[in-house]
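Section 5.1 Outputs to date
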Amino acid sequence: MAARPRFTSRATVLVLVLCSLVAILAYPTRQFISQRAEISAQRAKADHVRQQVDQLRRDKARWQDPEYVKAQARARLHYAVPGETPYIAVNPAGPAVQPSAPAAPASSGGSAQAAAKPWYASVWDSVDAADTVALAPATPRPLPPSPVGDPTPHDH
């Protein structure tokens, strides 16, 4: 009897067909998986944006309440109701110094003081500072002399 070949022609054709199917389907499968991941990321992003919109709607509803607006004006802008005397407590010692931190130089006290001032005071200070800055007079610079007999053409 003759020895049977290990792979028959049918088996070889079947293996070639299976390999070609795997090669043909590999790219669409990879695209499908990446698109599914992208869809999942977009859904997560949409959920996050939806939560932000809900938070903004709640904030808008809060701002429709006149009492909330008054409370925010008092807290943020230091407004007072007529008849009240507003006070701002200032710590003259400045912020508490950590024992492990080195002592701050005396010149840095201005930044702590500026942070404690209300916004309108710093705006007014900047207006005052801009008013007192002396601007140097603008002197025109002379143009360099053009060489006489310049052979290059000029567009004048």
